[in-house]
Design a protein that fits this description.
Largest interface: A-B, 40 and 40 residues
Largest sheet of chain A: none
Structural class of chain A: mainly alpha
Order of helices and strands of chain A: HHHHHHHHH
Oligomer: homodimer
Shape of chain A: elongated
Number of helices of chain A: 9
Chain lengths: 194, 194
DNA sequence: GCTTTCCAAACGACCGTTTGTTTGGAACCG
DNA sequence: CGGTTCCAAACAAACGGTCGTTTGGAAAGC
């Protein structure tokens, strides 16, 4: 119970930090801002966290972990390379939309982590990129995708589409995240030309 | 002469600010950092600038202006929609690569401007987006692009490819910006599938 | 009564900005 | 030519305020 209560309270702090960091940036958010958002004195926050940077790490890790989980699900599923690519992009868009704050912090603010922590995040970024590449690889191997496509380059384009989402997607738009992911995948595979 | 000397010195400050803002972020850069980079006391900077925010605005405007110029050139040129789209993406990649600092600040830090200044930048962002849309529009009108393509959505994908560049492009890689722009355009028009 | 939660207060460091003054050299004038 | 005026440029010091963090003790809830 005590554990649970601690975790609950701490989770509140992390959640508020995710929102503020995504809105104002890590360096643009002070402990005062965070305290205000939670109705606490800024000093009181240190009953729940070790440091401001630890808070940033938690938010970034949360974002990274969610993308990795959804990516793995797309890899594990069956279907053609096109279907997997679609599943990955849909999962990516849905993850970004459902957790826009931590996704934004994950993509925008992770570079302000000190070296050790940043390296841990970099490893997860690399793993995610490898997932995308493996799908493209598979598509080329099965003859589904063009053999002359540069794998790393195609993967970069897929990641660009997904990672730029946070900068323009806002809830309540005409298109939901699922449709966005599907249309991205469709355009990326079929192309714009007729 | 005096004017020119003043402008030169001020340009040095703006240039150093572009580098530091892109590396450490706007809020992560102090006037002390900036002074150190120029061999000046932080107070001495105020002989050349009005405020830190004015400095951010200058850097962001510089970045915006360069993208707009290159975009307009792609629109003014002749050729098919595919050729224009290629020209725009190549220009975009080259601009981002040649002025990576201000491009990064333009895309990453502009949101920390206060309302008035941010609105001025937003207008330029809108103009650039409209350029991309007009090319896609043209391609659909001439039958070059698929008629069932959502214009705004295709434009978003193009912008995603271009705007995410700053986060992974580093000078000295295998591919130069020109090739990057060309390959993006090729992949976007022809698609990944065979 | 023990643990969790929070406050009030303080810590030294740094923030962006302003001030008064000094410096070195160019421009002007006799 | 020598002296004066001017000016951009920089420094040293200080302004009030905020930064992230620590500490000691008081409530609150099981």
């Amino acid at each position: 119970m005590a554990e649970a209560a601690l975790r609950t309270r701490r989770a509140d702090v992390v959640k508020a930090a995710a929102r503020l960091f995504s809105e104002r940036g890590y360096h643009g958010t002070s402990m005062q801002h965070l305290g205000d958002a939670l109705g606490l004195q800024r000093g009181s926050l240190y009953a729940h966290i070790g440091s401001k940077e630890e808070l940033l790490f938690d938010v970034v890790e949360e974002g990274a972990e969610r993308f990795l989980e959804r990516g793995q699900r797309a890899l594990d599923g069956d279907g053609s390379a096109t279907e997997r690519l679609t599943a990955l992009l849909v999962g990516h868009a849905e993850t970004a939309a459902e957790h826009l704050d931590s996704a934004t912090v994950f993509l925008n603010e992770w570079r302000y982590l000190s070296e050790d922590l940043r390296a841990a995040v970099q490893a997860k970024r690399d793993r995610y990129e490898a997932m995308v590449r493996s799908i493209v690889d598979e598509g080329i191997a099965t003859g589904e995708f063009r053999a002359d496509a540069d794998v790393r380059f195609a993967a970069t384009l897929v990641l660009s589409a997904g990672n730029w989402l946070f900068s323009w997607y806002r809830p309540g738009g005409e298109l939901g995240p699922t449709e966005i992911g599907e249309r991205f995948a469709e355009l990326l595979t079929r192309g714009l030309s007729r």
